[in-house]
Design brief:
heterodimer; A: 260 residues; alpha+beta; 3 domains; seven-stranded antiparallel beta sheet; 19% strand; B: mainly alpha; Rna Polymerase Sigma Factor, Chain: A; Arc Repressor Mutant, subunit A; globular
């Protein structure tokens, strides 16, 4: 009874597929009422669960008790003991923090968590979207070097309004704009050309998952930054300096960017 | 302490009573502290929730060896009436609580392994890979369990809605 695509549709809904598969699923759902209904069910279930279930926080007493416990543990010198220690490389900074009190453990955990996530599927999505954009006819949906043409175009095609400025005089020529789909939303992609290189700048509403500021995937550099609730990511095969040059310009422009 | 709330929520769902959840979380953080070196990259939240799950499994095994006395039901009822009494608008508070309890109860009737996958996905926002790590099953199993849990939950609430008009959205 169930459509054979059901699991793929679910994976798409959960943000677990790459951009190419996402497109396939979307095209399929257009013609499959069953899968369209499934997508609706999935959204309803999520909305209800996130809206109605109690998001209990740990009671303060428990928090205090655990902090005390870890302090005691630390005081007793019960340092993490595991397997023979064979340091292959310099000790990670966060192990040093274990010499501190329970609070230090918390800090270490927090730092570790905030450090670039090695396996963030979103980063793969970004690279996939960038590479796909380089295929014939995929680079731009709206071709214009005029920001007053590109920016309004996004109003009907993406869920956010990105910063669009032509930096041709600084070596970053505005080529156009495009809409992409990942992280379960319509993402705005502004395309720049720097020398022989194409730089895609993606903008979307930031999710709960933090992205590393700088990372490299499959040889592509990815620079991410957040302004308010908007997540921006620039992806390219240029060098870091060239990519960061554009990021700096965009950040500056973002601060002064007012709707015209 | 990062992820303490997530650990606590997950533990509460695993043991369905706040007292036990406290113990499980405490034990989990202790184990996490001792086993910190065992953490190699990856996501800290998923790693911690894995430990919570293991602590719960151990506690269950120990409990099964002893004779157990189930918690009286009025424990939860007392909690709820306290909730209502403290609210400035008892009627709407109790309606909201009803709704929450309904979904809560429906989820509680799901098989344990389906419930875990569903909660980790929808409430804790873990990826399939992370859920697979926490629940110690292959990703394919995560996907099929998730699909079954979602379908079952939907079936249950349609049923509940048919019997109880207030729960209809």
């Amino acid at each position: 009874m169930q459509c054979a695509e059901a699991l793929r549709v679910q994976a798409y809904f959960d943000g677990e597929v790459d951009a190419v598969t996402a497109l396939e699923v979307e095209r399929h759902a257009e013609h499959c009422p069953e899968c369209r209904a499934q997508l609706e069910h999935l959204a309803t279930t999520r909305a209800r669960m996130r809206g109605e279930l109690e998001f209990a926080a740990a009671p303060p007493e428990l928090r205090a008790r655990i902090a005390r416990l870890l302090d005691d543990e630390e005081a007793r010198g019960a340092k993490p003991q595991r397997a023979p220690r064979v340091p292959l490389r310099p000790r990670p900074f966060w192990l040093g923090a274990l010499g501190g009190v329970g609070a230090a453990l918390a800090a270490a955990l927090a730092l570790f968590f905030l450090s670039p996530t090695l396996t963030n599927p979103l980063l793969d999505d970004l690279v996939t979207a960038h590479v796909r954009s380089l295929m014939p006819e995929h680079l731009t949906d709206v071709v214009s070097t005029d920001r007053h043409t590109v920016k309004p175009w996004f109003a009907g095609h993406a869920d956010v309004s990105p910063v669009v400025v032509d930096f041709a005089d600084r070596g970053y020529r505005l080529v156009g704009g495009r809409a992409d789909y990942f992280d379960q939303q319509r993402v705005a992609a502004v395309v720049y050309q720097h020398g022989a290189h194409v730089i895609n700048v993606f903008t979307w509403v930031a999710g709960r998952r933090a992205l590393p500021e700088f990372s490299t995937r499959s040889g592509y550099h990815i620079a991410c930054w957040k302004v308010g609730n908007l997540q921006h990511c620039a992806v390219s095969d240029t060098g870091w300096d060239e990519l960061q040059g554009l990021v700096a310009l965009l950040r500056a422009a973002g601060e002064t960017d007012t709707p015209h | 302490m990062p992820h303490l709330d997530a650990a606590y929520r997950f533990a509460r769902w695993l043991c369905r009573s706040s007292g036990d959840a406290d113990d499980i979380v405490q034990e989990a953080f202790l184990r996490a502290f001792r086993g910190f070196e065992g953490l190699r990259g990856g996501d800290v939240k998923a790693w911690l929730l894995t430990i919570v799950r293991n602590c719960h499994a151990t506690a269950m095994q120990q409990q099964q060896r002893r004779a157990t006395v189930p918690l009286p039901d009025d424990h939860e009822q007392a909690l709820q009436s306290a909730d209502v009494a403290a609210s400035p608008d008892p009627e709407s508070a109790s309606a909201a609580a009803d709704e929450r309890r309904t979904l809560d109860q429906l989820i509680a009737t799901l098989p344990e392994e389906h419930r875990q996958v569903l909660l980790l996905r929808e409430l804790e926002d873990l990826s399939y890979r992370e859920i697979a790590a926490v629940t110690q099953v292959p990703i394919g199993t995560v996907m099929s369990r998730l699909a079954r849990a979602r379908a079952a939950l939907r079936g249950k609430w349609l049923e509940a809605a048919a019997g109880e008009p207030r729960a209809v959205r």
